[in-house]
# Entry
Amino acid sequence: MKKIVLILLIAMVSLFAEDIQWAKSFEDAKKQSGASGKLVMLMLTQDGCAMCEYMKFNVLKNQDVVGVVESRFVPVEIDIHKGKVPDGFKAYGTPTIYFIDANGNKVGRQMVGAAKPEAFIELLQKVKK
# Structure
């Protein structure tokens, strides 16, 4: 009975947890960036990448991280083996995260690897337009 209650509790929390709204493509993210004044957050990933999974299912599900990302960025994810990596961008390891303006110009330095939620928020807050 305790297991059932725990499973139901986890399911309810998952239903009400806010998720990041990912752009459908890099071009769509740039359009949204131009319209909103937000920067694009491009995350290059690949299947089987443990750090990518950690970022997607732990860090990017953290409600504080979601709030910062949603307020300042238009996020888009591209699997380096399934999608086309935009010209001028490269995965130095996965995940590699770039910050980009609406014209496709890199802003600041890219991040390679994973970070804990608090450190990722700190990095996000340092990215300037």
User: Anything to note?
Assistant: The domain at 20-126 is CATH 3.40.30.10 (Glutaredoxin). The CA atoms of residues 49 and 94 lie 7 Å apart. The chain has one domain: 20-126.
